[in-house]
Design goal:
The chain has 155 residues and is an alpha/beta fold. The protein has 4 helices and 8 strands. The two termini are 28 Å apart.
């Protein structure tokens, strides 16, 4: 599900597009497993990426294994990773992605308060955690600017 673009935009100190993957578990509707609904959080993350000319949506995934596969194929600079997903959670997927691709920046996303993050979130290799309710353009810009701070940042 890649959405490549050939346009290059600049925004302040960002000169090139920053390709990003949005990874968010799909919610199953009813008892029919073939019917899925894209989460409002995924739609919101995509909208934030579209509002920032320095970021481009490279693709979307709904599980940890799919995220790992898309990183291999698309080579994004940034992964917005949901923590709770089917098959493999975002913490384990982040560990595997960062181990195989140390240049990829991962921001964990969920609805947890920082003090309630699951064990392993802070040492998963992710650069930051952002609560989905606080995710927006300014938050993304700030987290991206601080991505190499060397410490796990929570927004």
């Amino acid at each position: 599900h890649a959405f490549p673009t050939s346009a290059t935009h600049g925004l302040g100190r960002f000169q090139l597009d920053i390709s990003a993957l949005v990874i968010d578990g799909l919610e199953k509707v009813g008892l029919v497993w073939d019917v899925v609904r894209v989460s409002p959080e995924r739609m919101a993350a995509k909208a934030v990426l579209r509002r920032l000319p320095c970021f481009e949506l490279a693709g979307e995934a709904s599980s940890g294994p799919e995220a790992i596969e898309l990183v291999e194929v698309l080579h994004p600079e940034l992964v917005l990773m949901d923590i709770n997903m089917p098959e493999m959670n975002g913490i384990e997927a982040t560990r595997r992605i960062v181990a195989a691709h140390p240049d990829v920046v991962v921001f964990l996303c969920s609805t947890y308060d920082v003090e309630d993050l699951p064990p392993g979130a802070a040492d998963s290799g992710a650069s930051a955690y952002v609560n989905k309710e606080r995710f927006g353009a300014e938050t993304l810009r700030q987290l991206w600017a601080d991505r190499h701070s060397g410490s796990f940042t929570a927004a």
